[in-house]
Amino acid sequence: MGSRADLGRALADFRTEKGLSQSALAELVGEDRAWVAKNEAGTRRVDAVELTRIAKALGVGLDEILDRAKLEHRLPDRPGGADV
């Protein structure tokens, strides 16, 4: 998987796609807005239980979040289609 920052960007992307503010997501998962902001900034480690709660609140699967985080981290393909 990518970095914490990649995961944070993926979480922020899903949240904004769902039309939720950080405060609204925080309320859905039983946390405060600062907790959401730190997760999205990649300044705290999100454990599996927390990530499951976030995914459920966002109405997406864990695999979708993790896949998007991987795509954020992926380097561009080399010419000719070979991955770096």
TrEMBL record:
It comes from the Bacteria. InterPro entries: Cro/C1-type_HTH, Lambda_DNA-bd_dom_sf, TransReg_Diox_bact_type. Residues 11-65 form the HTH cro/C1-type domain. PROSITE patterns: HTH_CROC1. CDD domains: HTH_XRE. The keyword Repeat does not apply. GO terms for molecular function: DNA binding; DNA-binding transcription factor activity. The keyword Amino-acid biosynthesis does not apply. GO terms for cellular component: cytosol. Keywords: DNA-binding. PANTHER family: HTH-TYPE TRANSCRIPTIONAL REGULATOR, METHYLPHOSPHONATE SYNTHASE. This is XRE family transcriptional regulator.
